[in-house]
Amino acid sequence: MKKFILHFITIFLFIQSNITTAQNQFETQGVIVPRTIEFENKTLKLNGFGTRSKMWVDVYVQALYLTNLSDDGQYILESDTEMAVRLQILSNLVSSKKLTKSLNNGMKKSVGEENMKQFESQITQLESLLSTEETRKDDAFNLVYNPIDTSIWVYKNNKFEGKISGFEFKKAFFGIWLSNNPVDLDLKNDLLGK
What we know:
With about 190 residues, the protein is α+β, with helices and mostly antiparallel strands. It has helices at about 1-25, 75-80, 95-110, 120-130, 165-180, 185-190; strands at about 25-30, 30-35, 35-40, 40-55, 55-65, 85-90, 140-145, 150-155, 160-165.
């Protein structure tokens, strides 16, 4: 009887720990996606996540974190509240140069090539911050918008790399995935929880 009770308790604790873990995170493509991230004493909640694929290659898993959950891309772009995107690289084919080129092309698609000139200095900063060390598979980038200083804070593998200023740049950057002309419509819908 003691063995039965001991086995029952062990199984119960194992199941309970798995339920708790499942509530705190998700897993996709072998990537752990946390339900929340912390930024400057604020908790940002997972709004949605998905995988960006390009030419049959899974490039990165992306997650969108907001202070107030929403399925309205335009509302999110116009919002002056804390928000973040998390990109975790899935392929060794993704270099720092290819990542920044892809983000640059996504921004062009989102805002239109004629509007890119106003963001030249921020794009140069972004390229510099994303390539402090060569990007490799499993690298994770958190790009967090802070309304207090109207800048995007760039973290690579949880190490702060620097900031890029500008609310208009924030809208253009998040617009890569959330605008009316996103880089990937399926990914946009995943990030918006649709």
